[in-house]
């Protein structure tokens, strides 16, 4: 039943969403990952975005959705097509940093607005920032910095840290070390896409660490957590929310229970927008929303808040309206810093079980009103 | 580095190698006997894992899940052989690669259509969970020891099948001269379907066994497929014995390289750079091994034909 309604929702949402266009309508091009290994993230962003658009019930917004298959060259082709033949005003949707780096600089150089619902590579926050590029999620380092800050408050003094050997993995460990004040029991780079962590777990066991911090997104995190739980190690594990989102937790099962993770969003953040979002998302799609869905939802609401006060053809006015971020975020307080990246609280969550469903509960705040270190390098 | 850690890493390498063997055995049989490059072997691995996850979810029994994985993958393998693969035997390798690559895409999107885009849950049964103490004070997960034992049993079973049974004689004969055994009255197309189904079933079983400690998701088979091809090239195409030795060699090289190289680099480099450089080099190590073997023995360790 759940499967059926999920499939139905997916079918419905993948139809091009065409509203009646009048003279002032705004066209959004969404390029996101809907097939292949990382499809769960793109589907969540799309569903969150379309939920907000549907709830606003307005006829001046049109959304074109395309699947980038997680391939940079396809994302670039889609962006060209959307800008040149679809004539979109705003682009959004990209999940992965390498795809964002391939698409965003060219798109904003052509005067389009880009709202990032997920990826936040450091270049786009610092030296390569652009006044038309807005990040509605986080800068890539943020959740890892929160991990380091949490380790300090939890009293960890000897962490073992590991991440895959690729740019976001190296950024992750750098972000953790930026905030973390203790010693390192070990530092490991694993292979990207690695599925067996027996060797790493043996090294953790031998290292005498008092805590483990790992950044292993997607299937890598599932494999690591299951194998870690089976190894009998009792050292506490901390990670960013990417390994503990709603889509992944059900596949990890009991192995994730009690694990602490850092996130800018949680379904129990207490505000009216978030409560309404969680409830309507569940009713619409038959599953709990993930942080990616909340980011898609916030992106759409930010966009529509700007449409209410400015016309997209007046780029300066529209940009000012976006910068104001005058919308009700699922995260509560939300504003943009000088580089158009969020200034927001980052929370500490713990994995719990509600009935049959594994989910997260917020247990504290790691960083308040946190920005990023790259903002200083950004000059529009 | 302590001896306990080293011993544990050797066990890890052994376990990785044995699971690679179960995957590669089917691939090398199909390649050796039928002369077919089957890129969709990784999809059969995935089908096994998904079948196991579905059955384990419905019944709660891990044994039933393994049986389901084996039979689902073998059934899909037989079906694919009859519908698609059969038309490819007389084509060149490029056509086979294209057709079986298309199968990967069809199976991946088909699985997503059936099961959705989110990873499935498949866990170790409670009676195999947790670590056991081995002599020498090593704490090692029981499930991984079980994997080593199951893999060795499969190796023994395959060895007996190939060397002691009538089917095995036919397989070996088919490998050497397919026209001749057809002329002797053996139904070669039936033989090929059986060989393909055996290979597929083994891949499915490996998928289910490994899926319990990894992530059951669309596309999980492709990374393993690359390693399996490395194994059969090192071992010599068509040789089960070669596949066994090569997969253990690859498993040990991969695991021990990943541990020892960064440690070695730390002797004369700064820690963070050593980790990064060591990891990069260790991920190349099995390909260097493959290149080395091919220079010395161009047909692989146990390859019969040039």
UniProtKB/TrEMBL annotation, chain A:
The keyword Transport applies. GO terms for biological process: amino acid transport. The keyword Signal applies. This is Leucine-binding protein domain-containing protein. Residues 26-355 form the Leucine-binding protein domain. Residues 1-21 form the signal peptide. SUPFAM superfamilies: Periplasmic binding protein-like I (SSF53822). Belongs to the leucine-binding protein family. It comes from the Bacteria. Keywords: Amino-acid transport, Signal, Transport.
UniProtKB/TrEMBL annotation, chain B:
Keywords: Amino-acid transport, Cell membrane, Membrane, Transmembrane, Transmembrane helix, Transport. It is a multi-pass membrane protein. The chain crosses the membrane at residues 12-32, 39-56, 62-85, 97-122, 142-162, 191-213, 219-237, 244-265, 285-304. It holds the Pfam family BPD_transp_2. GO terms for molecular function: transmembrane transporter activity. GO terms for cellular component: plasma membrane. This is High-affinity branched-chain amino acid transport system permease protein LivH. It comes from Pelagimonas varians. The gene is livH_4.
